[in-house]
Design a protein that fits this description.
Elements lengths: L14 H11 L7 H30 L2 H26 L8 E4 L1 H4 L9 E7 L5 H16 L4 E7 H10 L1 H8 L2 E5 L1 H16 L3 H18 L18 H14 L7 H4 L5 H25 L8 H10 L10 H32 L3 H4 L9 E3 L6 E4 L2 E4 L4 H4 L2 H13 L2 E2 L1 H8 L7 H4 L2 H11 L5 H10 L2 H5 L1 H4 L15 H16 L8 H6 L6 H10 L10 H16 L3 H12 L3 H8 L5 H11 L2 H16 L8 H18 L8 H15 L5 H8 L4 H6 L2 H17 L4 E7 L4 E9 L4 H11 L4 E8 L4 E9 L5 H20 L4 H10 L12 E5 L7 E8 L4 H11 L2 E11 L2 E10 L8 H15 L5 H5 L27
Parallel strand pairs: 2-3, 7-8
Antiparallel strand pairs: 1-2, 1-4, 5-6, 6-7, 9-10, 10-12, 11-12, 11-15, 13-14, 14-16, 15-16
Helix pairs in contact: 1-2, 1-3, 2-3, 2-5, 3-5, 3-12, 6-7, 6-8, 9-10, 12-13, 12-14, 13-14, 14-18, 17-20, 17-21, 21-24, 24-26, 24-31, 26-28, 27-28, 29-32, 30-32, 31-32, 33-34, 37-38, 37-39, 37-40, 40-41
Length: about 950
């Protein structure tokens, strides 16, 4: 793909000196073949290391990615040429009759630091064993130098025969480049390949390479907006550009990509974009290989910061340096997509002109134009919308928006030529178009379409229309958020949110979010909901809170979109509050009355509550694969139903004491097949918090569990249950109460590799703890998950009984895990007495790590705090854990000095500043003594006054 002849190779390697040293190394008297190989290896390896060192220095100096790849290719050429010469001179003169050619990426005269060296050894039709020994010697030296060498040894005839049936071999030969040896063989191969393979098979090759590309995209996630993209194989990566060049070279019979401009396939501007994209992607790839010391192709979080620094990016208000770099990366990936569409359009036009005999092979490219009812600007070409004439957009720029609208209402795909013209007409979208009532009406019609609104939005976004039509949207196009929680760029996230809403709107996936599907038909402000979903993150990357800034943008955009004042206020409110339901559900105790009353004050009405629930579900589902699960759905449903009771006036006015007494009587009645004595004993075991928050079905199950444990004479026991719909597994622990019990259980779960999602903590009236730990499900089948849960349960029992030491099992678990150094989250601790009427709420936020929850709960125990409930929430690499606590007398923590001490101790353990012993587990937990059989008089973790 040679299109830069200005690269300077001087200073990388002194070729004459290296040739002299290699000849000297191979001329030792009485040398064996192995000794010669070792001598050459030492000289060549030193030259290679030094040459690569200088190449990296030049990359840091001039930033040229393609120049770096060319320099590495040139360096490799010199090493192979000199080695080949020495082999021919000192060992096998027949080596000069063998041609050595580069193929693959190396054949394009480009190499990344960790790339394979792909070689083709061409033998004459009459070849000898000496020739093969010469090839073998050369390969061994290259392997000993540490290169990954892909090679084939064939005659020209064998190459031609294999190329007829194998597209991969055909592609490799297409990019063959002479390095050394018998040049006539390479020339012969090129000539025969052109005449016998390429001629007349252009359409076949194009179809094969495009199908190969589609399969590669599917394997890589089929989106160019993954926040850890594959620079080589991903959508919008180097391989896509290389595919374009392969097709161009094969179909148009050209050797240099610059000729695409002369052929009219690309404009001069598009050719410059091609060059810049190629150079940028090569720079990123070369930096990745140099930094990691291997052929790393995934631009992972671990290296993004360093690559950004190497490429000279700096932090700006609202965006960190790494986020600016990644935004540039995704914009380049988008440019590659634009080039692909433009190229395919030109290719299709060219193929449509082919002779009739070829149409059998490329029937999908032949034109069959039909009128589209209701429009004269656009026509249908084999199920794809295209322009009736080239001036459709110039004549009326509103037609750019109308183009997508007509495609939507008629269910048409897009002709690449039409998309090319859209991309080249973006400058026509000005303020007149943006403020045009018809244009905005068409846009809202597409956004709220009952067909495929996300598909239309994605096509508009890829063509550059969305950023021009909604400039504020343009600011978040290709913007990534540097965290492990969000899997996509912001624009892709918003489009996927609309996709999730459309799914709910059409009544699909009711098994995933049944309540949202049930509520959607009753939503009156459907249009406002769609606008809110599309715009909810439109202000990401700004210095101020994106919810507040987004609401301000919505207040400006909604009237332009044709929404009335009431709808506008609703959209503004939804965007301003779009995080509150998710955060409340995941980080607050939903059985605490104050949680519900505070949230209900925000929601204000049932209509708003419905819309906020649906928006929240769509937002979470669009974050990335695996982020949404049934447990989050259950939390949102619980919050919705509890708030619905309050907003509809159905919240019970009966006192807690009366309701608890009624619950106790219901439990007594439910145990009808038990003896009167057991019914009385086990129905009176629980305090108010348990009776008022645990379902009767679970109360009966717990009673059976406790009675079975008592009859077996066990001091402690565990019970497990799976919830496949909620994607949660429940482990219930019965044990004598202990100040650090939750910490020990959390540590045991961490040691077993289980992520805790929630903890329900209760104390029985006879001094025992009945704690239910909810962990994230790992296996899809209940049998496998039950086995895993049983293992975790045994781990908890072993630690509680003293059979295993917690610091040791946690250390064993964490030993093989690589610490996450890519992210920095300053530890944060917030204490609030206003979030609950009865408890002090402690909220901690920091970087996640194995055993963290155990350490935090141990500190709370050290501080004589009684944990009543805990919410454990993970957002990628970040945890937000919330604890509802009191002092040992059941009172809130109001003393400012004590509050300050709590915050300091928690920040210290989160920052890993505690001593090594405490980091493993606090005193008193180092080797917990076996639990006594029964401690009936033990002080409960909840005071009776509070209960």
């Amino acid at each position: 793909m040679a299109y830069d002849d200005s690269i300077d190779f001087s200073g990388i390697l002194d070729v004459a000196q290296l040739r002299k040293e290699c000849r000297a190394a191979a001329s030792g008297s009485g040398q064996t073949v192995l000794e010669m190989r070792a001598a050459l290896l030492a000289v060549l390896r030193a030259a290679s290391v030094e040459g690569r060192k200088r190449t990296r220095a030049l990359l840091d100096e001039d930033g040229g990615g393609l120049a770096c790849a060319r320099r590495l290719s040139w360096l490799q050429d010199q090493l192979i040429q000199i080695l080949h010469e020495v082999v021919a001179e000192r060992l096998h003169p027949e080596a000069m009759e063998v041609a050595v050619a580069a193929v693959g990426g190396y054949g394009r005269d480009t190499l990344a630091p960790g790339s394979d060296i792909d070689l083709l050894f061409l033998l004459p039709s009459k070849n000898s064993e000496a020739m093969r020994k010469a090839i073998e010697f050369l390969l061994y030296v290259l392997w000993d130098m540490g290169f990954k060498v892909g090679h084939a040894t064939r005659t020209v005839e064998e190459c031609i025969q294999l190329a007829k049936t194998d597209i991969t071999i055909r592609t490799a030969i297409l990019e063959s480049r002479y390095i050394c040896g018998e040049e006539a063989l390479v020339s012969e191969l090129e000539k025969r390949f052109d005449n016998e393979i390429v001629a007349g098979t252009g359409a076949e090759f194009v179809a094969a390479k495009l199908a190969e590309r589609d399969q590669r995209h599917q394997k890589a996630g089929d989106t160019r907006y993954l926040v850890e993209p594959n620079v080589k194989e991903g959508k919008g990566g180097l391989r896509d550009l290389q595919t374009l060049f392969w097709i161009a070279k094969y179909y148009y019979r050209i050797r240099d990509a610059r000729e695409l401009v002369k052929l009219g396939v690309l404009s001069r501007h598009e050719w410059k974009v091609f060059q810049k994209s190629d150079d940028f992607l090569w720079a990123v790839r070369c930096h990745m290989h140099f930094l990691t010391g291997k052929a790393e192709e995934r631009l992972s979080f671990d290296i993004q910061r360093e690559i950004a620094e190497s490429l000279g990016y700096h932090t700006r208000p609202g965006l960190a340096a790494v986020e600016r770099f990644m935004k540039h990366y995704f914009l380049v990936a988008k440019d590659v997509g634009d080039l692909t569409r433009i190229f395919c359009a030109a290719l299709e036009d060219e193929q449509a002109k082919e002779a009739p005999g070829l149409k059998r092979v490329i029937s999908r490219f032949t034109k069959r134009v039909h009128k589209i009812p209701g429009t004269v600007e656009f026509v249908q070409d084999r199920g794809r919308i295209t322009l009736a004439d080239p001036d459709v957009f110039k004549r009326d720029p509103i037609n750019i928006i109308r183009f997508f609208h007509v495609a939507d209402i008629n269910g048409l795909e897009f002709h690449p030529d039409a998309l090319k013209r859209v991309t080249r007409s973006l400058s026509l979208i000005n303020d007149d178009v943006r403020n045009n009532d018809e244009a905005n009406r068409l846009f809202i019609s597409m956004l709220t379409s009952r067909r495929e609104p996300a598909l239309m939005l994605r096509r508009m976004n890829e063509a550059g229309v969305l950023r021009r039509f909604i400039p504020d949207f343009g600011r978040i196009v290709s913007m990534m958020q540097f965290n492990m929680y969000h899997h996509y760029t912001v624009d892709e996230h918003l489009i996927r949110s609309v996709e999730a809403l459309s799914e709910v709107d059409k009544g699909q996936a009711a098994d995933i979010h049944p309540l949202a599907n049930k509520l959607m038909p009753s939503v009156e402000e459907r249009e406002a909901l769609y606008v809110a979903v599309l715009l909810h993150d439109i202000a990401k990357g700004r210095q101020e809170d994106h919810s507040v800034a987004g609401a301000r943008i919505a207040r400006k955009l909604c009237p332009r979109f044709g929404l009335n004042a009431k709808q506008t206020e609703l959209v503004v409110w939804l965007i301003e509050e779009h995080l509150i339901m998710s955060m409340t559900a995941q980080t607050r105790d939903l059985h605490d009355r104050k949680t519900i009353t505070d949230f209900a004050e925000k929601a204000q009405s049932m209509d708003r509550l419905k819309l906020l629930l649906i928006l929240t579900i769509c937002d979470i589902r669009a974050v990335g694969p695996g982020v949404w699960n049934g447990w989050k759905g259950q939390l949102l449903r619980t919050l919705y139903y509890e708030t619905e009771l309050l907003l509809s006036g159905g919240f019970s006015e009966v006192s807690r004491k009366e309701r608890a007494k009624q619950a106790e009587e219901e439990l007594f009645t439910a145990l009808a097949d038990w003896s009167q004595k057991d019914r009385r004993v086990y129905s009176r075991l629980h305090y108010q918090p348990y009776l008022l928050s645990v379902d009767l079905e679970d109360q009966v199950r717990h009673a059976q569990f406790i009675r079975d444990t008592d009859r077996a004479g066990h001091a402690l026991a565990t019970m497990v249950r799976t919830h496949s719909f909620h994607a949660i597994t429940e482990i219930t622990v019965l044990a004598p109460d202990h100040p650090r019990l939750l910490s020990i259980i959390a540590g045991a779960c961490a040691a077993a590799g289980a992520n805790i999602a929630d903890a329900q903590i209760y104390t029985t009236s006879d001094g025992r703890a009945l704690d239910t730990i909810l962990i994230n499900r790992e296996f899809t089948t209940d049998e496998d998950e039950m086995r895993r849960a049983a293992t975790i349960g045994r781990m908890i029992e072993d630690v509680l009984s003293g059979k295993k030491r917690l610091p040791e099992v946690i250390a064993t678990r964490a030993k093989g895990k690589k610490r996450n150094k890519a992210f920095e989250i300053p530890p944060s601790v917030v204490l609030s007495n206003g979030l609950s009427n009865k408890f002090t709420v402690v909220e901690v936020e920091c970087l996640d790590r194995p055993g963290l929850l155990a350490e935090i709960t141990a500190v709370l125990a050290d501080l004589s705090l009684d944990i009543h409930s805990a919410r454990i929430t993970t957002f990628g690499e970040k945890v937000i854990d919330t604890f509802y606590v009191t002092d040992l007398l059941g009172s809130k923590i109001t003393n400012e000095n004590r509050q300050g001490n709590i915050m300091a101790r928690l920040k210290a353990v989160m920052a890993e500043q505690e001593d090594e012993l405490r980091r493993g587990m606090p005193s008193g937990m180092i080797a917990p003594a076996p639990m006594p059989a029964r401690r009936a008089q033990q002080t409960p973790r909840r005071s009776k006054a509070e209960a």
